[in-house]
Specification:
The protein is mainly alpha-helical. It has 4 domains: 42 residues, no CATH class; 205 residues, no CATH class; 161 residues, no CATH class; 96 residues, no CATH class. It is 72% helix and 0% strand. It has 24 helices and no strands. Helix 10 packs antiparallel against helix 11. It is flat, with a radius of gyration of 29 Å.
Length: 556
Amino acid sequence: MSATPSASESGDQKSGELADRTGGTDKDKSRSRASSSTVTSPAPEAAQAPETDSPVLQPAVVPGPWPAGIQVGAPRPIRTATLWSALAAGLLGMLLLGAGIGVNLLIVAIPVALAAWFAARAAGRRPRAWTLVWGVGGLSLLTVPALRDAEWPSFLAVAAAIGAGSLALDGGRRWPAVLLGPIGVFHAVVTAPAWAWQGLRQRSGGLRERLGPVLRALVVAVVLLAVFGALFAAADAAFADLLGALVPDISVSDGPFRVLLLVLGLVGALAAAHTAAAPVRWDRIEVPEGRARGRVEWALPLIVLVLLFAAFNAVQLAVLFGGYDAVLEKTGRTYAEYARQGFWQLLMATVLTLLVIVLALRWAPRTRSGDRALVRGVLGTLCALALVVVASAVRRMDMYVEAYGLTRLRISVLAAELWLGLVIVLIMAAGVWGARRLPRAVAASAAAGVLAFGFMSPDELIAERNVQRYEDTGSFDLDYARGLSADAVPALDRLEEPLRSCALRTVAADLGERDTPWYATSLGETEARRILHERPLSAEADVLECGRLGNEVMYR
């Protein structure tokens, strides 16, 4: 296995891309300069810029907190379609985002994406495959709040959606673009309103002619809906209930908050459109290579580390995968004690291994083919041994869960450890096929992991594992189960009474206090309400009984 591309392959890729971007070879350029004295050669920065799906830079430059060498072209005047999409995002945000998050977040994100699409098309940007991947991935991540009642996977999904959206807007492919992309979007929050206002002033005459009839039609439609909707609601109670469930409940006291949501939705959509029209070219940042070290200076520490990994993994294979008797014989500890002792250290060892690989690639010898073979051999072996460490950490956590049950922290760090193992595999693949796609692959794996984490419903998985542990051992952490979200109700519903009602008391009380509209209600909450409606809680499960029962099942 190898862990880094050869220098010759990287040079060939760069030279080919440079020829494509600058319009041909140097010979073709010399012919072009000889044929016309009015044609000027491109600037050195433009010739060295990596390929992106961003438009040709405009003469004007937008100021900003950008590193040296980065220029942001001024976007073309805003189009009417972009303005309408941004206005729709603001209005939907004002109407739907005041009562929590659910499918409403995805509904608001759709006009935001349309505003960015129209702005990019007006700027001459052609959609590429990766742009569509990031855009569709970001919208898919926003389905997690619509599916899950738990807040923590929804938060991770929204954060990952922002990262994926920034990559769709900027179009970068190197590490600076992957890591710094959201900065450009947040900076556009400041510059986008001025851009929209300037476009409105330039198009004021035509916009008045087009907007006037549309606005008058909307006002008439709203008045008609209000009048006849009130009459029909007063005439039929069932229709009144249906109308009340569908129409957002907005009161006069919510006015300032609703105005704030309108502004946030409008400005957010304009920022996305501005970034799509004039993206920050993060790929222009030149990260200097580290000074190459000699073979002995570079390889000796890594070879020693490889030998240490090999010795540790040999012990792990003998102990961890040898069963309970092997653990007792070699360590004198139980499964649970052995697992608790080492998981966190192995997780940290995995993180540090990735750091060592990054630094080793920076200082790796790369002048001769033998140097490149040495780099691939040593780092490939280190990556392979690091995967065994990942497997050992996952096995320890599995033992830990068998003894003490599954929690949010344990499932989160287990998912993180599995993702780190995937990153190591991607690094090994980059050593064989080249590191050009590695930044995008790592970012895509992170987004896909967060999406899968939300889809699998971690709270429900935690409850299922702990219920199964109760059925096998009779031990159950009732206090922890009470803190789970409504996603855990289908699994906790399997418990016998009165333990079932004790576990569901907190969730049932929380659902009883909620009065969320359809657009802020998750699928997990809907399913929990159905189960609790079909099987109400037992009256015997009072506070004293639940306290006694919790102590009893905790220490079985």
